Amino acid sequence: MFSTGFKYFFGVTVLSVVALVMSVALFKNLALIGVAITFLIAAGALLTGLAIITSDGTTRDANVQTSDMTTQSLWPLVTGIGTVFLALGLVTSSIVFFGGVVVLLAALSEWMIQAWSERASSDASHNAEARKRLLNPIEFPVLAALGLGVVIFAFSRIMLTVDKSTGAVLFIVVGTLVLVAGTLFAIKPNMKRSVGAAICALGAIGIIAGGVASAVSGEREELALAAEEGHFTHKECGPEESEYFDKLKEETLSLRSAVSATIIYQDGELIAKIQGLNKPQKSITVPRSNATNIIFRNATEGEFRLVVDLGKPKTEDKDSDHDVDCTQLIETGGEQSLTLKIPKSSSADNHYKLFIAGAEDKQIIVVVP
Amino acid sequence: MHKTLKSAVVVFVGSLVAASCATNAPQDTWQPKGPNAKLIDDLQQPVFAVAGIIGLIVAAAVTYTVIKYRDRGQPIPEQTHGKPALEITLTVIPALILAVVAVFTFGAIFKLAKTDDTEMIINVTGQQWWWEYDYPVQNEFGITSPIISSGQLVMPVGTKVLLRETSRDVIHSYWIPALNGKRDAVPGRVQTLRLEADEPGIYAGQCTEFCGLSHANMRMEAVALSKEDFAKWVANQQAPYVVPAKDSLAQQGETVFLNQCVRCHQVNGLMRADGTPAIAAPDENVWSGAAPNLSHLMSRNTFAGAAFDLLSKKCRDEVWGAPSNVVGAKYLAGVTEDCLNQKDLRAWLRNAPEMKPMYANPADLEISNGKYRGMPYLALSEDDINKLVAYLLTLK
Amino acid sequence: MAIIERPAPTVPAVVTPTSTYGVLKRPVSATGWRSWVFTVDHKKIGIMYGATAMFFFIVGGVEALLIRLQLAAPNGKVLNADLYNQMFTMHATTMVFLFVMPMAAAFANYFVPLQIGARDVAFPRLNAFSFWALLFGGIFLNLAWFLGGAADGGWFMYAPNSGPVFSPTNGVDFWALGLQITGIASLAGAINLIITVLNMRAPGMSLMKMPIFTWMITVVQFLLLFAVPVITVALFLLSFQRNFGARFFDVAAGADPLLWQHLFWIFGHPEVYILILPSFGIISEVLPVFSRKPLFGYPFVVFSGAAIGFVGWGVWAHHMFASGLGPVSVAVFSLTTMAIAVPTGVKIINWTLTMWGGKLWFTTAMKFAIGLIVLFTVGGLSGVTHSVAPSDTQQTDTYYIVAHFHYVLFGGAVLGIFSGFYYWWPKVFGKMLNEKLGSWNFWLMIIGLNLTFGPMHILGLQGQPRRMYRWTEARAGEGFFNLAFWNMIASIGSFILTTGILMFLINVWVTWRNPKKAPLDPWDARSLEWMTTNPPKEHNFDVIPTVHHLDEFFHRKYEEDATTHTMKQVATAEELMAEQERNADKHIHMPSPSYWPIVLAFALPIITFGIIYSYLISVVGGVIVLFAAYGWALESSTAPDSDFENNTPGTALAIHD
Fold it and tell me: Which of A160, A193, A228 is the last residue of a domain?
């Protein structure tokens, strides 16, 4: 029942588990050793399983008349490719190397099972069945995961490349196509296999080609910009345009339900509109220590920036600079939100205000009770 | 059943239900004291009546069927599978009733959501486990500098007040049943609720969104004052800080306050010995970043999130039981030394988490970066407590 | 499909399947504990579901009693705030996920295959896996009690109160991960039953000739199929927030905590129908049997069930009328909530009209069914008052809501379940339950439940909120009938209710010790499950019946007199049974027991345990999952001949007379 091969691989697995436990106990930082031993355990466990299931690849009856017809095999070729990747990876990058390892492992497992199954009995169809039973439970999930991964990856590249509105249209179009294809399959269950395969292949090629093309042409401008410049690290609150900070203006807002006040720059004056109060206000109240959203809307010709003066970070320190926060330069009719979180209440010698950059007289008092 | 018998049953059951209710329950949802709650009540009364009648009809029909068709040896009945015409009729009737209800419901929903004729706004901020009220500057009500309070919401009668609710930590819900339905205070959002009281009085409420350990102890009260009384209240809230008399117990209490309490609790106008204003730093000590502002503490009747009375039982009953024409004056009298609920206040200062469960055990605070949720145990000596109580009594 | 023939001997004789595929022999015991643990028989699994659900019913009941003890008087001292919050969270979680849902699964598992004339469900091993995943998930959920405290955020677990700062123990982690496991169980079960119903009905049984219980179960499985993924997503977000530092509900990171509420209630409202529809199905079986009349307006009941299934998806935000959705959304959800009352009302009308003109036999099962009609109506009508959104803003989160859903769930779902117990007990165990004790059981439960939940209407309308670990006399009002009085009555009622439920357990014990053998057809029943022995044979039917009528069994026993339209008996159940046995199928192949479902299910709590404590444990669980899934995939549905003592191929495998 327990074959030699099983005992051997089982031993290897148990020893590597022991090794892992010991290294967990001995080393603080497992890093490479941990990865290596974990791989060893996984490989050992897989081989143990295969050994016990195939009884070391032998059959009960030693006199089995194996069929002479060996089937065609893809695996020598794939093994070769894996080896090449392995070697290439050694001189280029580790990703290629690991890719080679995975391909090699997969090909060798397939090869091993195929070779065993061809000798399992004298009945070729039973042998094919045996191979399927052993490998399909692994093949199907892995292939499905790979396929899904490719589709998701390719599609996400496309969506990152096209601009936002094209993306929306594309999404609708692709969704419709999938629906149409699905409907077609559903109402014509007896459709020729080749037609179905052609539709799927077309879809796959479309998505992969699109993905490759997109990956080559790079992400759309604002994403590329955002990736290269963290513009919030260069926040500049002066009246002039900032090289980094004003690059990516977002002027569409979706947080209306969470807004405490709207600050409008209109007719040369800064006013606050507060929900519930009909008259425009010259001061707003912000609860202490609570993130509070306001919207700045520019209703004056020209580009303006709203700045919030958050007082001195330490009241005792008379010389320190005031903390400031600001919006970007907002063009006429544009809007931007700003979140205030002020931990200290305002007092006579520590008060906060909102103002237009470069025109400090246009201001609104921020009261923190 | 006869018609008269039926209506007799309805009247009987109705009066039975009415008689079996508590009288003067402070949070009764059937005793509206303002136009918003009245609007809801006018809607729910007929709906409950209709629902009750339908319930009685179903119960009567089932009872009748059960009695009439019990097995008395009759033969197995004809195996009929239903009468579609009857079915459809009986489906359409409830649908029509509901359609009528829907029309009135829609009207009420949009009326209650109206905010553009607001006369006064108050910001309401919830946190574990108390409510903070702040009154933005509104000159027409004499509010020339912002007022901040907690526990009791003070508002003028006959005024359309808009609460702008938000929260500093978890979701809470603001509910004064006599004035309106509830509205959740959701962190990151500003949500509105309209209150308006017809008569001066004190209206009880309770946080109704589960908000953690002391949810049960998170109460609130709305105090409606006549416009004149409200003006007096506003004036008192804006009155400057009164320094305790020199060498009094209260002055020693101020020192204790400056050493201990001011880490979280702000008293507007309080100065340190070196002449700088004492600014509390609850953001460094409390997870929500706020603790009740104690300026004019003794103008409120409750403390610790309205969980406990500042007034002794006798004085509290006097205020709550006062008729609407004098309740304002009684309330504005505030808490005097004779009326102070010494027992609870001292117990609170002695060991707050024991009176109201809070996350105040230093061992539990790793996850919140050492910040408390609620007031911790301060290990104050009895002597310090005496001084503090004397000092707090000066915060009129 | 369930019935997979044992491989015919086309395999070359030199290689047996055992030597090709491995060394493990299949478990084949027909008796002893192994016959239960490794079983794939839908009836045994159904009984295990029932026993598990009953156990958790008792657990949840004890939690409820502690809650009522705490609230009997002001400033209760029985539990502290922390423990109370855990108690009401776990009471709801246990009753919803570990009692009513599995109990419905118990009935569904046992009776759906019997009612549609099938020999098992479509995927017997998956069925066993569902059960074990539920059991292990339920145990995992409750382990938290012993490991630092159970979940304390309420069963709705609103964010951000469920976050690590606000709920620092591991309770919420156990809750979220435990529900993931029971969710897997529900999903697997749903897929299994849907495929069973769609593909394995007896010849002649069109969908509109399908017993109404099976119909309601089918609707429920579709609801589960679409609702469980939603809660799964929500729970993943919660787990990532707590265990991996994600910020889905963190306002400081720009999140909106209302996201959780929407996700939870999009699951949570269909869940209400998941809980109630099986009981609707049960009493729609019981009422016709004891009224000696077919269900009145069968197509209306079917389609109203399906309509509830659809409209149930469009009402979730009525749980959020106070959340600040804005008037337009509130109005829309108000309207849909009113709309769903109509199909529900249709059912009540149909049940009453089923009894109308009948010949009523008041067995305990029938009493529970009638009790459901009346008490569910109370809950339904208070539900309609919630659809009036402005009025709901006064009542939501008060005891009025507690009263409402306990009338719906206790007066509805639980009474239906008890009706099912009494109706089907002889079928499942071959013994009758005592009707006298049943009467005590019924009346004590009815009195107890009205005393417990009735006063809660008053408590809520007079302003007592839910989820408060203590209440104060200052808000209780005056007069003899103040809120203190009603709180006390509710607490007393809860103990009467408990006595009623104890009566059931006593009944089971008494009739187990001193059994009265059930006749073949004790109730003169109507549907196919009664057309076999009590309890049914492992292969259910000797002959798969061909169906010509709704209520096939009844129409085989009775025929209508063409002139007088009266029914006269033409055959007895015994005669029909004898005829079946004479013509019994010769070759019946039943699926074989398997080790893998329980092994795979056991690995799930190991993985989740590891997520909380150490990822190494999760790796162990993952490896077990991998191997169990592989073993499962490798074995065929039916064991090879060599695993059986009588190993002649092609014989009936598992007939034990």
Answer: A228
